[in-house]
Amino acid sequence: MEQSNRKWWVLVTVSLAVFMAMLDITIVNVALPDIQKNFSSSFSSLQWVLNAYTLVYAAMLLPVSKLGDIIGRKKVFLLGLGIFVVGSLTSGLAGNDVWLNIFRGLQGIGGAAMMSLSLTIVTASFPEKQRGLALGIWSSVVGLAISGGPLIGGALVDSFGWRSIFLVNIPFGVLAIVLGIVFIQESNRNRNEKIDVLGFIFSTAAIFTLVLALIQKETHEAYSWTNWHVLSLFVASAALFIAFIVTERTVKHPMIQLSIFKNRSFNGANIAAFVLGAGLYGGFTYLTILMQNYMGYSAFETGVKMLLISGFTIILGPLAGIISGKIGNRWLISGALFIGAIGILAIRHMIKAPFEWGYLLPGFILLGISNALVNPPIANAAMSSVKKQQVGMASGILNVFRQVGISFGVVMLGIKLTEGYNHSLDQHIAEIHNADPELKNQMLELFHKAGAFAGSQMFDSKQAEAFKQMPAFDDFKRIVFNAFNAGIQDVDLLIAILLLIGALASALLIRKKRDSV
C-alpha cells in the first residue's frame, strides 16, 4: 500500500484506540446506579469502579511511553490494545465489585499504552505539512470521547445493561488490533537504551500516590488537606518525585531527560493541558450533576445536551490543526482558552434557580468552540518543540499533565461546590420564619449530610413524603436549589480563573513553532 494511504489508516487505527481509552474514563458514570443495584455495593466501593481505571491509567502513562521507545512503539501499542480488550471482557463478566475494580485497573494499563503511544505514532507517521491536520483529528477524537461518554453510556445502559459499556470495546478493540498489525510500521528502536528500573519505580509510584491523594480528598468530604490519609500521600508523592529527579540526574539511561523541561514551548503546552483538564474536563462532572440532579434530565438526555460541546470538535478540530500551522500554536491555544473562560463566565452570569436549559446554551456553544480549537495546537506545540528522540516521552508527559489536571480539577471544583452550597444553606435556612427552630436544625443537618450532589434528591425520596405537606416545604426546596446555584457559581468562577491562567501562560511561554521532529 502507498505510504500516503497507509498514514491515514494509521490515524484511523490510533483514533479508534484513543476513543475507547478516553471514553472509559467518563462512560462509567451513568452506569454506576445499575452496577450498585446489581452488586449491592457500598458507595466507597462503587467509586473505585471509576478511580481504579483513572489511577492506574495516570501512573502508567510515562512507563509505557519509555517502553515504546526501547522495544518498539507498535509492539507496546498493540500489547496495550490486547490488555485493554482482555480488561474490557473481564470487566463485563465480573461477578462482584471487587473483581470489577481489579479488571478496571487492567483496563487502565492498556488505556495508558494506547493513549500515550498513539500521539507519538501519529506524529511519526505524518510529514510536517500534514501533521497539524492529523493532530487536529486525533484531538477531536479525544474531546469527543470525553464529552460523549454520558450519551454513549446512557444509550448502552438503557438498551443492554451496564455490562455492555465494557463488552462493546471487544469488537472494536479486535478491529483496531488487526488494523494496527497491518498498517502501523514499527519505530526505530534505540538498541543502546536500557530500562531505567529506579526511574520506572519512582515515577510510577509518585504519580500513583499523587492521584490517590486527590482521590482520597474527593471521596472523603470530611477529610481536610492536613488529614493524615491525604497529607501522608502528598508527602510520599513529593519524596518520590525528589528521588526520581535525583535518579534521572545520575543514571546513564534516564527515563526522562530532564532537559526537556528547559523548553519553554513544551512547558507552556503542558500547563495548557493541565488547566484544560482541571477546568473544562473536570467541570464536565459538575455540569452533568447540574443537569441530571437539579434539572431532571436523564443520563441519555444529559449526554445529548453535552453533545453541543463535543459536536464542535468534529468540524473545528481538524480545522484547528490546519490553522495552528498558519498562525502558530501560541495564539490559537491562548485564544481558545480565553473563549472557554468567557463561556463559563456566561453560564455563571445567567444561571439561577429554578434552572433552565436556556441559561446554559450560550456558554455551552463557547465551551464547544474552545474545546474544539484548543486540543490540536496543544498536541502540536508539545510534539513539535522537542527533538525526534524525545517525542515518545513528550507524549507521555503531556498526557500525564492532562490526566492529573482532570483529577485535580474534580477535587478542587468539588470542594468549591460543597463550600458554596453549605455556606448558602447555613445563611438562608435561618431566614425561614414558618418552621420551628428544631425542624430547621434537623433539615439543615439532613441537607448537609446529603451534600450538593444529592440535596435535590431529598425532595423526591421517601423521606420527603413525611414533610411535603408542611408550610415550609417549598421554602426548603427553594433554599437547597439556590444553595446548589451558589456552589455552581463558585465552580464556574474557579474554572474561568484556571482557563485564564492557561491562556496567559500559553501566550508568554509558547514560541513560534519549530519543527524538530
From TrEMBL:
The organism's place on the tree of life at top rank: Bacteria
Q: List, alphabetically, the NCBIfam families matched.
A: efflux_EmrB
Q: What is its main location?
A: membrane
Q: How does it sit in the membrane?
A: Multi-pass membrane protein
UniProt keyword terms in alphabetical order: Cell membrane, Membrane, Transmembrane, Transmembrane helix, Transport
Report the protein name in the record.
MFS transporter
Spans traversing the lipid bilayer: 9-32, 44-64, 76-94, 106-126, 133-153, 165-185, 197-216, 228-247, 268-291, 303-324, 331-351, 357-375, 396-415, 493-510
Residues of the Major facilitator superfamily (MFS) profile domain? 10-514
**What compartments host this protein?**
Cell membrane
